[in-house]
Structures are given as structure tokens and as C-alpha cells.
Design goal:
single chain, mainly alpha, 0% strand, globular
């Protein structure tokens, strides 16, 4: 999947341009261990549980199969501005508190139907919040727009969804099992068969 196509997908799914575009250059850096971030393994597990409801396993792998939480939190730590990172951390850390108040237990202990109901309500709240912040103007901006530190930060659930989609479709599992992948450079085939319903290409 080309960078521009992935950004279009993220924008279509969240209504807001991708935050932390430096994530696209992140593969050029040395891997960063989780211990060098403000997050821990419990945070990764929670993110994976949330992400699995956003991209659940069907006949193809889901977000948890790709362990998106690990890379997502490292990207949030390293590629977000301080303002974006702080907003993300406060919101992300509030999820279990909200679930305790509403259901009497943390998110990971909820049933799938309870998790879906909670995230649906959170998604609606994010949409209202983003609209109030006038963030939808970003939908007409160039995809590689450099966000200014004074730009409003999207709702934290919007950031979670963006990180989920980005890390899943750039993971080995997402690229090779949810999408179709062929290593580049590969041979040229000008008459490649296409059948309706075929998966999109990752390359």
C-alpha cells in the first residue's frame, strides 16, 4: 500500500489528517525498546484490546495478531509533539477509569458487546469534539501537511484509531495477510489476473 493511499484510508476512517507524519520515516531509525518510552506492557495489552475492536480478526488477522499496541505506543512516544503526546496519554489513561465508572470493571474485562458499545460512544464523542475544534478542515489539506504546534489536537480516540490503522497495515501481518504483498523489486507482469473481491496490494 502506497503512503498516500494509507493516509487516505486513515483520513476516511477518522475524519482527520494523520497526526505524527514523521512516523513514515520511523523505520529508518533503530528500534526503540518499550522501556525507553513512558508506556509499559500493560499499556500495550490495553491498546491491543482496544485495537482488536477497531480491526477485529475475521477471515484475516486482526490488530491483536499484529501486536499493534507495541509499535503504536512507541510511535506516540517518539513521533507526536509534546502537546499531542500529552493529550494522547491523558485520554488513553482515562479509558479504564471511564469503564470502571460505567461498568464496574476495566476495558479488557468487558464483554465484546460492552467494549463495542463503549468505543461506539467514544467515537461519537470524538466526532463531536473534532468538529468543535474545527479539525475537519484538514480533510482538504495536503496529506503531508506539517502540523504546527498551535494546531488543535484531535480527540485521543481519533489518535488511537489512526495509530491502529497505520501500525496494522504497515506490519508484516497486515501487509502480507490482510493485504497482498510482493517484494520489490519484483518481475513486471502487464497482464496480471484480477478477480472481483481480491485483496488490495500492500506494495
Amino acid at each position: 500500500m502506497q503512503r498516500r493511499e494509507l493516509l487516505k484510508m486513515i483520513m476516511a476512517a477518522t475524519g482527520v489528517a494523520m497526526v505524527g507524519n514523521s512516523a513514515f520515516a520511523y523505520v529508518l531509525k533503530s528500534p526503540v525498546p518499550l522501556t525507553d518510552t513512558v508506556f509499559n506492557q500493560g499499556d500495550v495489552d490495553l491498546f491491543n484490546d482496544i485495537a482488536e475492536r477497531i480491526l477485529p480478526r475475521t477471515d484475516t488477522p486482526g490488530a491483536k495478531d499484529a501486536n499493534v499496541g507495541l509499535m503504536a505506543l512507541i510511535l506516540a512516544n517518539d513521533c507526536y509533539s509534546k502537546t499531542e503526546r500529552d493529550a494522547f496519554i491523558v485520554g488513553f489513561n482515562s479509558i479504564n477509569t471511564q469503564c470502571q465508572a460505567r461498568f464496574g470493571k476495566g476495558f479488557s474485562s468487558l464483554s465484546i458487546s460492552e467494549q463495542n458499545a463503549f468505543l461506539q460512544d467514544l467515537g461519537q464523542a470524538a466526532s463531536v469534539y473534532n468538529k468543535k475544534q474545527d479539525l475537519y478542515y484538514l480533510s482538504t489539506a495536503p496529506f503531508d501537511k506539517n502540523r504546527d504546534s498551535t494546531d488543535p489536537t484531535p480527540h485521543y480516540f481519533t489518535l488511537i484509531k489512526q495509530l491502529t490503522i497505520f501500525t496494522f497495515f504497515t506490519s508484516k501481518v497486515g501487509a502480507t495477510e490482510a493485504l497482498r504483498y510482493e517484494a520489490i523489486p519484483g518481475k513486471y507482469n502487464g497482464e496480471l489476473d484480477y478477480k472481483k473481491g481480491d485483496r488490495a496490494w500492500a506494495t
